[in-house]
Amino acid sequence: MGYRLFAGPLAMYYAGDYPSAPEQPPFDRDQLLAAVRQWQSAVASHVPGYRSWEEGYGLPYLTANLSMEMFGALVLKVCCHLTGEDMPATIPGGWLFYEDGTVDRAMSSGAKVPSMLMAEVWVPSDETFMGPCTGPAGNEVNVSTTGTLRRDLAAINASIWRSGNEEIASWSESVPAIGDTMDAEALARFTFSVFCRILAAAESCGSPIIVGH
Q: What is the pLDDT of residue 143?
């Protein structure tokens, strides 16, 4: 199981209109687009500072696929910072972050956790928001805003790495080695950089970000 980030029109995401998309069963594209636009109207009343975006097909997007170890390494890095524990140098292949004791302690500590640990959709808005909502596919999801994600990423960098934009961008220029034992810090930095790239694409196009597995 992997972790997919998609910045762009939600109709394109659900239609699988991008190269690395999983195969989709037959569907009516007009009905899908209408359903997504209906969700746009519904979520507008829940999110402060909500900004609408262009929905449709053939529009700009950016997607990134992460292994669960990659995403989990960033979660672990943040949770170690919250609990004051040392980040392990390596993580084993097949490691599941949600079974890790440090992650559990951080999530149950009452400390404020970044939206990337909980949100499944970020919609365009400069306001801070996180809350449950019926998602575009009809299931309940945690919805946040691109402004929240921007502030979360800035806070993580300021408290952990204190790195400039060029250095952060360089962390995702090559994919860290994946195997039986992996460099936890390299995976965390790679994933953080990918989040920054996805957010930049979303803000450039004024589009949402959605998580897939």
A: 97
| For the chain, domain boundaries | 2-212
The whole-number pLDDT of residue 121 equals 97
Token pair in block for residue 12: 């394109």
pLDDT at 110: 83
**Residue whose tokens read 């809350």:** 131
| Cβ count near 165 (within 10 Å) | 10
> Could you identify the residue written with the tokens 């897939």?
212
172 secondary structure, DSSP code: T
Q: What does the pLDDT read at residue 1?
A: 60
CA distance 27 to 145: 29
In the three-class reduction of DSSP (H, G, I as helix; E, B as strand; rest coil), residue 174 is classed as: coil
The count of other CB atoms within 10 Å of the CB of residue 156 is 19
Q: How many H-runs (helices) and E-runs (strands) does the chain carry?
A: 7, 8
Question: In whole angstroms, what is the distance from residue 162 CA to residue 159 CA?
Answer: 7
Q: Is the dihedral of CA 32, 34, 38, 43 positive or negative?
A: positive
- CA-CA distance, 105 to 160, in Å (whole number)? 19
Cα distances (angstroms) measured from residue 163 to each of 85, 168, 169? 21, 6, 10
pLDDT tens digits, 61-70? 999 999 999 9
Give the per-residue pLDDT at 2. 80
Cα separation, 117 vs 97, in Å, equals 11
| Residues of the chain under the 70 pLDDT cut | 1
Contact 209, 7 (CB under 8 A): yes
